[in-house]
Automatic annotation (TrEMBL):
PANTHER family: ALDEHYDE DEHYDROGENASE-RELATED (PTHR11699). Belongs to the aldehyde dehydrogenase family. InterPro entries: Ald_DH_CS_CYS, Ald_DH_CS_GLU, Aldehyde_DH_dom. Keywords: Oxidoreductase. The keyword Oxidoreductase applies. The active site is at E246. This is Gamma-aminobutyraldehyde dehydrogenase. It comes from the Bacteria. The keyword Heme does not apply. It holds the Pfam family Aldedh. Residues 11-470 form the Aldehyde dehydrogenase domain.
Length: 497
């Protein structure tokens, strides 16, 4: 079954099918029938119908359901790890140790966060009134997610939305919908009421576009490329919907001359290759002080050569394939073009047993200048550029020299340099002497053209709630003092001027 609407798995109504393929061998895992207009309408209607009861459930009731959901996910962790590994081409070690435990922790976190909505104290900010704050759910959330972390992205979209009392229609990428469907199914088994979570498998250009413009969708929450993010903003304008955008990234990895070089080399390898580099926060641009430059290149290239590409089901595999043949061609094309203007070390499509999958070897692109395609545009593959700098000013300028601002890291033992980098690099997250770790309690989200709004953490609850001011008159007077702005007080009290 391809759709999850109103608590049930159903087929899409278009009759058009898409094969969900294992990118490590090209084999079809499941054929799904795509959603169309009727499915969009049915899912949005189900979410709309479920909203009144779910938004009025007490925080404790929503929390209890999420707590049970976390426990059920824990029981089915291996099933999720296997399915995520197969549909997205992730090494099983990654899904077992990162994607699935991270998702379970997120559910557990939002079970607690559901009971912790905050606001200003009720009080008499005017002597004649008592003011209080209500923090309310927004309504039906239309959400669209990408293929790189299908399960985690579904969790990041769904959990804060429903913890805050909203209902949701999620459209995952059509090439990786399977764990989002299973996620909704298990949530329902845990007690999330029918209609609260709906998942539509369909194309962005049809189902996605319709969801964005649906009059009964109150808010849009999108994770994906900056190009499509602009489309989301345009669509939101048609009905003035609230928008939350998590877009592309091109994270700098700045190595100052006092850095622990070995730590930086290891950090760059793991930070650039996680999820085969298909990570919006992945280290993509190493900016390295000239005194360490060649040693850094040598160290990273040495470790890249040792990385084991292999079958995703093998726990010894370090690096899986790219998500599709199409994406493999895009990555290979960018690297090939870079050969004309930079020093490319490694890279290429492996042959032999791996040829049936969309694998690509780790690639270092040294001497990439800031105006080059490989330095500026998202590659979204196992590719790290390296660019030298002389002064700290230059390093910070280079770090900020892209339209993106999602994540960055600074490598130094000097606390003043670290403080300067964390203050001056324009990104939603800056690590010091590390790159990649995320945690449920802390926000994730960008600056500049990486979007706006936060995922994870209690900050994400701000995105999915609206603050309402309620003001009570305290005087009981029929003619209130402030009415003198219209009439004089004597007129108001029937005494004339
Ligand atoms: P994408 O923008 O091509 O697609 C994302 C989603 O949008 C998919 O579900 C797709 O079907 C849908 N879509 C495409 N065109 C649409 C349209 N016209 N209307 C409505 N929906 C449409 O991105 P992708 O290739 O799936 O994912 C990779 C991108 O996602 C990268 O740019 C990456 O940086 C970004 N990303 C960002 C974050 C973050 O948190 N900032 C996290 C993960 C991925």
């Amino acid at each position: 079954m391809s759709q999850f609407i109103n608590g049930k798995l159903v087929e899409g109504t278009t009759g058009e099918t898409v094969d969900v393929k294992d990118p490590s061998n090209g084999q079809t895992i499941r054929t799904i029938t795509l959603a169309g207009s009727d499915d969009v309408n049915a899912a949005v209607q189900a979410a709309k119908d479920a909203f009144p009861a779910w938004s009025r459930a007490t925080p404790a009731e929503r929390s209890a359901v999420l707590t049970k959901f976390a426990a059920l996910m824990e029981e089915r962790a291996e099933e999720f790890a296997q399915l995520e590994s197969r549909q997205a081409g992730k090494p099983i070690r990654l899904t077992r140790e990162f994607d699935v435990p991270g998702t379970i922790d997120n559910i557990a976190f939002f079970a607690g966060a559901a009971r912790n909505l905050e606001g200003k104290a009720t009080g008499e900010y005017s002597p004649d009134h008592t003011s209080s704050i209500r923090r309310e759910a927004i309504g039906v959330i239309g959400s669209i997610s990408p293929w790189n972390y299908p399960l985690q992205m579904a969790a990041w979209k769904i959990l804060p939305a429903i913890a805050a009392g909203n209902t949701i229609v999620l459209k995952p990428a059509e090439i990786t919908p399977l764990t989002s469907l299973l996620f909704a199914e298990v949530a329902t088994e845990a007690g999330v009421p029918d209609g609260v979570i709906n998942v539509l498998t369909g194309r962005g250009s049809t189902v996605g576009a319709e969801l964005l413009r649906h009059p009964d969708v109150d808010m849009l929450s999108f994770t994906g490329s900056t190009v499509v993010g602009r489309t989301v903003l345009e669509a939101a304008a048609t009905t003035a919907k609230r928008v939350h955008l998590e877009l592309g990234g091109k994270a700098p990895f700045v190595v100052f001359d006092d850095a622990d070089l070995e730590a930086a080399i290891h950090g760059a390898v793991a930070g650039s290759l996680i999820n085969t580099g298909q990570d919006c926060t992945a280290a993509t641009r190493a900016i390295v002080h000239s005194s360490l430059y060649e040693k850094f290149i040598e160290g990273v290239a040495g470790l890249y050569a040792k990385v084991k590409l292999g079958p995703t089901q093998d726990p010894a595999t370090d690096l899986g394939p790219l998500v599709s043949r199409k994406h493999q061609e895009t990555v290979a094309g960018m690297v090939e073009r870079a050969r004309a203007y930079a020093r490319v070390i490694g890279g290429g499509v492996p042959d032999g047993d791996l040829a049936s999958g969309s694998y690509y070897r780790p690639t270092l692109v040294a001497d990439a200048t800031p105006d080059s395609e490989i330095f500026r545009d998202e590659v979204f593959g196992p590719v790290l550029t390296v660019t030298p700098f002389e002064t700290d000013d230059e390093a910070i300028t280079l770090a900020n020299d892209t339209p993106y601002g999602l994540a960055a890291s600074a490598w130094t033992k000097d606390v003043y340099r670290a403080l300067r980098a964390t203050r001056e690099i324009r990104a939603g997250a800056v690590w010091v002497n590390d790159h990649i770790p995320i945690i449920s309690e802390m926000p994730h989200g960008g600056m500049k053209q990486s979007g706006f709004g936060k995922d994870m953490s209690t900050y994400s609850l701000d995105e999915y709630t609206v603050v309402k001011h309620v003001m009570f008159d305290l005087t009981g007077a029929q003619a209130k003092d402030w009415h003198r702005t219209i009439f004089t007080l004597n007129e108001l009290n029937g005494k004339g001027q």
